[in-house]
Write a structure and sequence with these properties.
Layout lengths: L3 H20 L9 H7 L4 H14 L7 H9 L5 E6 L5 H7 L6 H8 L1 E5 L7 H14 L5 E5 L12 E2 L4 E2 H10 L3 E5 L1 H5 L24 E3 L6 H14 L12 H4 L3 H4 L3 H5 L10 H5 L17 H4 L8 H4 L11 H4 L7 H5 L6 H11 L5 H20 L1
Parallel strand pairs: 1-2, 1-3, 3-6, 6-7
Antiparallel strand pairs: 4-5
Bound molecules: ligand FSX, iron/sulfur cluster (SF4) and FE3-S4 cluster.
The site of iron/sulfur cluster has 15 residues, from helix 12 and helix 13.
């Protein structure tokens, strides 16, 4: 929430920043954002609506909406280098593949993506050279985005990339040394991801443990296109890294629990639970806690922003949240279709189980609430059954 002075100060800061970006030339010749949107059948009105949604998503006051639109317009002044490590490319796909071009994916076309292995035409030596020359040309000015976990130690060379056979860790260190800002895109780059799950045969590590520069984590497996684009827009607007939580996640995106934003929350509070997939409760849209939803332990904004051009999100589709934006969720949140309470809160519910969970998942602030959640799921059904 912003009031008075703080809001005016931030507005002035963003206006100043955008003015200086506007004074710079676009990095590549091409059409303006207006022409690009027109070509794709997107009206100015839709674009401004999108800017308002993004402004609200970034937890900025509505007065910032015109500046968010302007930030998108000057996004072609910003060189980006996107590196792939060990992962499934789902993060890139989340952004680039929708049934029709969304404004988010078009913005991504519009920014100056100097290097991105999935979508560039170059390969082999030429790709290697493109990366080197992008780093050289934009020294100190580019945003580095890294997708994927990074093998380390004696197994570092389990991931080698490109014609020179450099390891992933080496490429990250070289690219990070001259970057203006660094974003870890996806849970793999933020926390290690599936390749870091036990027994982690390649000793895969997150980006922040591979390089020494500050990193902003944008987790999710994959993260939504809005969280990726919002992180970029925030940097364009302010030229600084956003406020984050203890896991380096931007607070605007990861400051609230899935459980607190969930459309099935009323069902939870009323003690109405799906007992098995496909039962009557599932058809009626009851709470998914008992079939494994980890929404109470997960911080993300999926219900607000959704995926695939705001179409849906896991819980709307009928499956519980698996906690994909939390550290080490592959190891800590499973089994995915059973409640945590069955495993770590064996009756009687006790502090030992709680501490164990809090320590592994790292949500220490939720200790009391988590005991309450498991207890509620048990007790509310007992009370309901009695009635
Ligand atoms: Fe995949 Fe990205 Fe998951 Fe990882 O997303 S969707 S395995 S977070 O690095 O490609
Ligand atoms: Fe929603 Fe899951 Fe919480 Fe139920 S447990 S209200 S489905 S987040
Ligand atoms: Fe991931 Fe849960 Fe959202 S599984 S996509 S954080 S609803």
């Amino acid at each position: 929430m912003f009031f008075g002075d703080k809001e005016s100060r931030l507005l002035a800061q963003a206006k100043e920043r955008l003015k200086s970006l506007q004074a710079q030339k676009p990095l590549h010749e091409g059409s303006s954002i207006k022409e690009m949107l027109q070509r794709n059948g997107i009206s100015r009105r839709d674009f401004l609506k999108w800017a308002s949604t993004m402004t609200a998503a970034m937890a900025l006051p509505a007065s910032f909406a015109p500046l968010t639109a302007k930030a998108a317009e000057v996004a072609d002044r910003l060189p980006l280098i996107w590196l792939h490590m060990a992962e499934c490319t789902g993060c890139s796909e989340s952004l680039l593949r929708s049934d029709g071009p969304s404004i988010d994916s078009l913005i991504f076309d519009y920014v100056s993506l100097e290097y991105h292995e999935t979508i560039m035409a170059a390969s082999g030596w030429q790709a290697e050279q493109n990366l080197e020359s992008a780093i050289e040309r934009h020294k100190g000015n580019y945003i580095l985005l890294v997708e994927g976990g990074i093998p380390s130690g004696a197994t570092e060379n389990c991931l080698t990339i490109g014609a020179l056979g450099h390891t992933g860790a080496h490429s990250c260190k070289v690219a990070a040394a001259n970057a203006k800002a660094i974003f870890a895109i996806g849970s793999c780059s933020s926390f290690g991801g599936i390749q870091a799950a036990a027994p982690n045969p390649t000793q895969a590590r997150p980006l922040h443990k591979t390089i020494s520069q500050p990193v902003i984590n944008v987790p999710g497996c994959p993260p939504s296109e809005k969280n990726i684009v919002g992180t970029l827009l925030h940097f364009i607007l302010f030229g600084t890294l956003p406020p984050t939580d203890a896991y380096r996640r931007p607070l605007w995106a990861y400051g609230q629990r899935i459980h607190d934003l969930c459309e099935r929350r009323g069902r939870f509070d009323a003690g109405e639970f799906v007992q098995r997939f496909g039962d009557e409760g599932a058809e009626a849209g009851y709470c998914l806690y008992k079939v494994g939803c980890k929404g109470p332990y997960t911080f993300n904004n999926c219900s607000k922003l959704r995926f695939n051009s705001h179409t849906s999100w896991p819980i709307q589709a009928g499956h519980g949240c698996i906690g994909c934006s939390e550290p080490n969720f592959w190891d800590n949140m499973g089994p995915f279709e059973e409640p945590v309470a069955n495993h770590r809160f064996r009756p009687p519910l006790g502090a030992t189980g709680m501490d164990n969970m809090a320590d592994k998942v790292g949500i220490t602030v939720l200790s009391a609430a988590v005991i309450g959640i498991a207890a509620h799921a048990v007790l509310s059904t007992i009370i309901k059954d009695k009635h």
